[in-house]
Structure formats: C-alpha cells, structure tokens
C-alpha cells in the first residue's frame, strides 16, 4: 500500500512577520503510524524540496513521542528535505492521500490548482483523502463531479473557531476552517478544544487538531486494510 503525504510550502503567517508552515506532530504521528504498519509513504509539496516547519511546533510544550522520534530520525529528515513537486505526482501511483496541517495550508494548498485536481482525482478513483487540523482547508474549492462542494452533505471536522481564538490568530488567517466547511455544506462536528477527535464519511477522513492526527491516520489505515 502506498500513501502520498502533501505538505505546505507556505511559511509566512499573514502580515505578522512571523513564520508558519506545517505542524510537526501532524506529520510525524501519522507518518510513523502508517510506516510502522508497512505502508510506503511518498512526500510532496507545491514547491518541492524542504517544506517549512512551523517553528512553534518545535517548542518543548508541543513535543510528543512521535516528534521526539522524528528529531532523532536522520533518514526521515532527509526524506522530508526532498519532497516531490506536487505538479509531478499522479494519484494512479497511490492508494490514498494524507494532508498534515499547520497554518501554511490555509494560504497555499487551499488555493493550489494541482492540489485541488489531485484531491478530486483521488475521490473520482474511489481512494481516501485524509486531512487534519488546518489541512481540511484543502476542501475550500474541491468539487464533486456534479459541481457541488466535495464536503457538501459529508460529516467533517477541522480546527475549531475556539481553537483558532485560543492561539489568537482569528484575525490573521485568510479564513476559518470551521466556518468554511460549514459554508460548503459540510456536516461539521467537533470534540472539546484540543481533544482528539476525527470523523470518517465515505472517502473523507478529517481530524480536528494536532492531537487528532494519529486517530485520523488510524482511520485511514483501517480503511486501507
């Protein structure tokens, strides 16, 4: 089984002058869970090469068993430094796709034509699409074959308005994930802020926040096996 991971290439947190990128736990936890279960993983990003890691996600408060493992794993760090360019990947080569979050995807992957086409292609070919935390931003413009929003009538979750308020970025981000999913007709639900919560509906698997990334990967693994 082969899974494609798509990471953000965007490193600017709006006009704040601060850096963003992908959240390391949301990459490491699913990556190791799938890899340890024999899944072959390929990494891609819009620009290719090293995707930006959100510096906040490397702070001591946010370390987990998975992030500590990543910090000592030179092989995976090397793999991460040379992601494929998104425009070169084809869904035919993979069984599923997983999008880790972090704030970066709100700016690039939500609007990226290659990403939008790729997601629609996975769905068209009956393959699962998983996204965690801010990564459900990728469903902003994705459509079903009939032109309706991909998440319309589907159970979904993603970073909550309360969580965005908690990190004080409500006025910085280009849009709120929770609001966007609802306005696209998604049947949005959530657990407590910062608690592990993930939802599966057909081919769509979504996780609410960093703590949900492993659970989302477990749902994907179950689906693949």
Lateral arrangement of strands in the main beta sheet: 3-2-1-4-5-9-8
Shape: globular
The major β-sheet equals: 7 strands, mixed
Tally of contiguous helical segments: 8
Which CATH top level class fits?
Alpha Beta
Q: Beta-strand level of the residues, as a percent range?
A: 5-15%
Question: Domains counted in the coordinates: how many?
Answer: 1
**Helix percent band:** 25-40%
How far apart the termini lie comes to 9 Å
Query: Element order, helices and strands?
Result: EHEHHEEHHEEHHEEEH
The Rg value, from CA coordinates, equals: 16 Å
Strand-pairing-aware structural class:
alpha/beta
Rounded average pLDDT: 98
CATH topology: Rossmann fold
**CATH superfamily grouping:** Class I glutamine amidotransferase (GATase) domain
In the predicted model, the low-confidence regions spanning at least 5 consecutive residues are none
CATH architecture: 3-Layer(aba) Sandwich
Count of DSSP strands: 9
